Amino acid sequence: MRNDPASTAAAVLARAGGPGNVTSVAHCMTRLRLGVADPAAVDAEGLRALPGVLGVVTDGAGVQIVLGPGVVEEVTARTEALVREPAPARPAGPDGGAEAGHPREATPVKALLRRVANVFVPLIPALIGCGVLAGLNGLLLNAGLLPALTPALTAVASGFMALIAVFVGHNTAKEFGGTPVLGGAVAAVVVYPGVAKVTAFGVHLVPGQGGVLGALAAALLATRVEKWCRGRVPGALDVLLTPTVTVLVSGLVTLYGLMYAAGVVAAAIGAAADWLLATTGPAAGLVLGGLFLPLVMLGLHQALIPIHTTLIAQQGYTVLLPLLAMAGAGQVGAALAVYVRLRHDVSLRTTIRSALPAGLLGVGEPLIYGVSLPLGRPFVTACGGGAAGGAFVGFFAMLGDKVGATAIGPSGWALFPLLAGNHGPGTAAAVYGGGLLTGYAVGFAATYLFGFTSRSRAAASA
User: Fold this and answer.
1) Does residue 131 carry a pLDDT above 90?
2) DSSP string for residues in 285-310
3) Nearest residue to 367 (alpha-carbon basis) of 54, 50, 8, 3
């Protein structure tokens, strides 16, 4: 029976320290992401115990509650409504401020990754939608079907990617305390066609040079310039001078420095990905496929979005996503082995049956938090299955058959419409499908043979 989203939202807020402790509300495909003022006020164990909550990840300045696809959107909307409601003031502490515990600070690296994820996670729905349309359009073009429709589909699918820098700039300024529209305005310089007339470091700039990395850097600079102006410009002139100085200074620095530097970095990312797969394909796939589940568990996988989007803008697809997607295949194989071995555990088998369809479509959190992670060993053997699938795809990449995804977000079987490669979508689909089957088989076998202690084996045979 499905839990009521309103009740879930109220229960989550109560265990997150109340509406007054929540500073931001957002969500990705499976997780409700709350920013909190006082991390010590969050009852993580209480959140984990709530019906419908699949897992909880805390990172010092926020908390991620895994709810699963579909449910998370409804709970997020209810949570936002509750947070907006007026709340009584928190009791004052001895020093006159709000009473608070001692927050557990996130490490600088985790804090930075969390903020970068906050910039890109809201873009995922558009990346998915436009990516699926681009894949469909590619199929129509290759088959020579509906020639009157394909130009329109091209425009619809490509418009967002052509202007993604503006959205990145908007979200960056919002995340780092600037005016969002100013961040978007400065980032728009990166994709403006007229930059082709500008020369920096002896070469003409190219519209889009530096991609989302350039937009991110431009908006960060705009936020710093804006804050500097706010503290120095008289109030009467602030509305006129601050936006002007922010756009002028940040725009010029973007043109004559950031775009060129970001372009160099973006080119290096593409070259590094190609070199990695061409020279160490199986080893690279093994490491990436094997370590991705722990990244998902910690909520750090979203920080890879800038790399994926950079590769898509530069090469037309990201070669990393199919490798990372193998982690989900290992997880599915491990869950099937648990289902077979623990045949008397009715509750666990029910969880697996309900979570398996999502797992096949690449949404792994229900299986991670509901099955493999609580059992311990199956989580490790699932990583082994992901490593095997990644090594399979990496091996073919080393042979010259690159497999990539034209958009990010979907995984598992849902990634098939988005596959592309240097030898066409058919070859890409065959290699990717082989990787999935390898991940399923190795994840199942490793879990069946090594995923259970003697006690769990005894329980399985009881």
Assistant:
1) no
2) HHHHHHHHHHHHHHT-GGGGHHHHHH
3) 54
Q: Which domains can be identified in the chain, with CATH numbers? A: 1-86 (3.30.1360.60), 122-273 (no CATH), 286-461 (no CATH)
Judge whether 379 and 293 are in contact, CB under 8 Å.
Answer: yes
**Both tokens of residue 53?**
């909550």
**Which two tokens mark 119?**
């910039």
Counting Cβ atoms within 10 Å, is residue 232 exposed (0-12), middle (13-18) or buried (19+)?
A: exposed
Q: What is the CA radius of gyration of the chain?
A: 24
> Rounded to 10 degrees, what is the CA torsion of 143, 148, 150, 156?
-160
Strand segments, DSSP code E, in 165-268 are: 199-200, 203-204
Give the burial class of 300: count Cβ atoms within 10 A of its Cβ; 0-12 exposed, 13-18 middle, 19 or more buried: middle
Question: How is residue 318 annotated by DSSP?
Answer: B
C-alpha torsion sign, points 423, 426, 430, 436: positive
Using CA atoms, how far apart are residues 22 and 175, in angstroms rounded to an integer?
A: 15
What mean pLDDT comes out for the span 278-284? 94
pLDDT digits (tens, 9 = 90+) for 54-110: 888 887 678 999 888 778 889 999 999 888 876 554 444 444 444 444 444 556 777
Distance CA 406, CA 347 (A): 39
| Pair 168, 123: CB distance under 8 Å | yes
Tens-place pLDDT, residues 329-352? 999 999 999 999 988 888 889 889
Pairing of strands 62-66, 199-200: unpaired
Distances (CA, A) of 282 to 275, 277, 289, 402: 13, 8, 10, 12
d(CA 50, CA 216): 37
**Percentage of the chain exceeding pLDDT 70:** 93
Residues annotated as part of the active site: 28
Measured CA to CA in angstroms, residue 246 lies from 194, 249, 253, 347, 369 at distances of 20, 6, 11, 58, 45
pTM of the model: 0.79
Distance CA 52, CA 70 (A): 12
Strand order in the sheet with 62-66: 22-27, 31-36, 62-66, 55-58
